[in-house]
Amino acid sequence: MTASDVAVFRQILDAKDVIEDEADLAGMNVDWTGRFKGESRLALMPRTTEQVADLLRHCQKRKLAVVPQGGNTGLVGGGVPIRDEIIVSLGRMKKVLDHDPVTGTVALEAGVILERADQFVREHGRMMPIDLGAKGSCMIGGCLATNAGGIRVLRYGSLRSNVLGLQAVCADGTVLDNMRGLQKDNTGYDWKQLIVGSEGTLALITAAVIKTWPAPKDIQVALLSLDSYEQIGKLYSLAQSECAEVLSAFEFWDESAKGLLQKHLKLKVPQTSQFAVLIEVSGSEKEPNSEKLLRLLEIAMEKEIILDGSIAQDETQAKVFWSFRESIPEACAKEGLVLKFDLSLGRSQALYSIVERMRDNLKNDATVSSITGYGHFGDGNLHLNISMDQLPDREKVLRIEKQVFGYIRENGGSISAEHGIGQAKMPFLHYSRSDTEIALMYQLKGLFDPSGILNIGKVLSPKTTKYFNVY
Amino acid sequence: MTASDVAVFRQILDAKDVIEDEADLAGMNVDWTGRFKGESRLALMPRTTEQVADLLRHCQKRKLAVVPQGGNTGLVGGGVPIRDEIIVSLGRMKKVLDHDPVTGTVALEAGVILERADQFVREHGRMMPIDLGAKGSCMIGGCLATNAGGIRVLRYGSLRSNVLGLQAVCADGTVLDNMRGLQKDNTGYDWKQLIVGSEGTLALITAAVIKTWPAPKDIQVALLSLDSYEQIGKLYSLAQSECAEVLSAFEFWDESAKGLLQKHLKLKVPQTSQFAVLIEVSGSEKEPNSEKLLRLLEIAMEKEIILDGSIAQDETQAKVFWSFRESIPEACAKEGLVLKFDLSLGRSQALYSIVERMRDNLKNDATVSSITGYGHFGDGNLHLNISMDQLPDREKVLRIEKQVFGYIRENGGSISAEHGIGQAKMPFLHYSRSDTEIALMYQLKGLFDPSGILNIGKVLSPKTTKYFNVY
Questions:
Q1: Which chain A residue's Cα is nearest to B183?
Q2: A353: Cβ–Cβ under 8 A, 6 or more apart, which residues?
Q3: Domain A96-214 coded CATH 3.30.465.10
Q4: For chain B, which terminal residue's Cβ has fewer other Cβ atoms within 10 angstroms, N or C?
Q5: What is the pTM of this model?
Q6: pLDDT value of position A462
Q7: How far apart, in whole angstroms, are the C-alpha atoms of residue B95 and residue A135?
């Protein structure tokens, strides 16, 4: 990158949208976990899709690498530079473009913060189909680029399945635009699904139309204790049958999580056994919700699936129950440095075994202070957190990763259910995807971004066209 | 194709799975509407994915064109040969491969008939996410290849959004396989979404994992009369707010439909005004369903959104109400030869205007006997049926198509909400998709099927790499 490149960028953007100041760049060069640091000397903050197109056209011509950045809340280093790539931040494209009161769809620019989008649609009695811890910072564009998960997937489906329109800019500046926001449209290939979840490696998302859902008027939450992971599966089947359409969350955590919540955050979790399950039902009126939840608990108690449990008596108690689940990552972090895994299996039953296996594998490792399992049971999605006293060396991390991901590979699961591949999991992509699938990904990458300027070093290794199989 | 090609196919398949008999081929050469006829002299009926791969490998090597066929129930000529392509029928791959009792996912071979899949999962208290008129004949592979719609999209989302795994064979025999059936998996590009809805032009679907839903234990149906299309929009907004999670269908039809149902099928529709709406709510218990539906009707009556209406008193009456909606295509067909359109717009309000516009445009055409509008209001999806006394000449059809599709183009809608492009709508693809989108489709087609052997003459014109813009 030369001074004349910067001059071109200054022609495309307002001066204040071209960031060269080191202090301003600092926060954009590092992800929020602090694990991934880049050395970018330039961030561009376009305000229109045309500006994005003009910027990328110049970058492609000059083969300047670009990293798209949203709210910078990712967990796998997908949104920060690996070296000195130019950061293209979408944070200044934050308009709500359109809202349809009948169908409830909402059209948003990529930089709209999730929480703001949710607030906007709630004024119309609707809610966004996605909710996650980072909602106060994460942006719609980043959520889409990573097909972000969270607690609403169980009821409302993946974010991918709630995308009705997309606008994205390819590496050569071509604008792909399908913002018609149609609920149904079978006219040729659905290219937008390829961009969603591609982590900014195929195109840069500038806007989207999202399907929203009626906001529930009543929410009920229960907290239950169970003495084995198998019992959670039984409870889940029962909940699907008894609560069906009102079931909106089915989360679980183990005794280790309970211990850390107590130890570090002084939270008293009324959990009497090895596992806790948080069930949420929600819908358009209170009575059937309460009745369905109560009946579920009665049947589960009678069948000895649960040991005990309670239904939150008011909104405050419901928030307390949720705070247990939501505070687990924080409690793990207070225990020490955390190796985080985000795993899924098709068949839920075997998933917790990896927690037990890792406890066994690491039982003689004095640096390991706790091993915790929790997550979205209904999605077959387990978060495994290994808290360690000290930063383990790269070799030890690798050994642990190989054990965890090896188990997932053996059982046909995903090494990244929600978080994506980014930099962190790139070397392990082949643990979840076949050589054939990865070869196809390289072909698609080559088609969309032949010069390889978009988010280099994320998802696919840039070093070879054959997968760079380091492990 | 030579005798030695057939000999190769006989080595790959059992003799009885290689069909050369003209009588046996007749039904496979023509679509069920009778509009699209091919002259294939060979149908292959593989029983395994490996056989499909071996067949395609040979076809690609010899540049023999192939048309994949499922239940042959499509409406746009997408599943029949245009000339003498080899038919590859999936009808003999009909095994249920797996079923997970906890998550409720089901793995199916492409040839499983939708109704059979639904029956299978209902034994486990679940239902398929898709239901449509052709369910007794259509196959899972064909449903996926066309991203088939139907009456459950409103509640359960598109079929696309319920696909958790896919196995498909590329033109060169490469087997793309991701049958892990994960609810959440963010490990690289979701190629299966590209195959879904590509109508057999990118790869041949051999199996899939589908998400199923708890089968409702109670279903309530109401039939309402309204005097304008705008009122339907108001009723829909109200239904989303009042019935929310139990709303499972919101269908509508016009007075013309009522007249044809009465005239040709002797059905007495209790519809007192210009429009009828059928609302279905369903869920895990009767009482809240009935109460929510009743309250919706009370409010709608009070607000003068509906003129009158009734709730089906039992299952028999509910079936009668549904029969009105389901019999409309048949009633239109009895009125004469039907030009069928399957349209959607992002904003529901303007959609019915095309029916009125076409009535106006064709008011002096004596061959037009009725113009009927009906469809899935909640999905913004209108079926426009123009019944004519006699087969119109190609020129007149074209004139009508240009008027209808022109309106859709002006309003940013879809010329094919559910049915796909196939042969029938190929010349109009650019009415719904931009040149940029279509150029990308050609690139993707070139990547997946460089020799162009897969379902030639469907979706994209084979004649040029630039879209063959005949109109």
A1: A379
A2: A407
A3: yes
A4: C
A5: 0.96
A6: 79
A7: 43
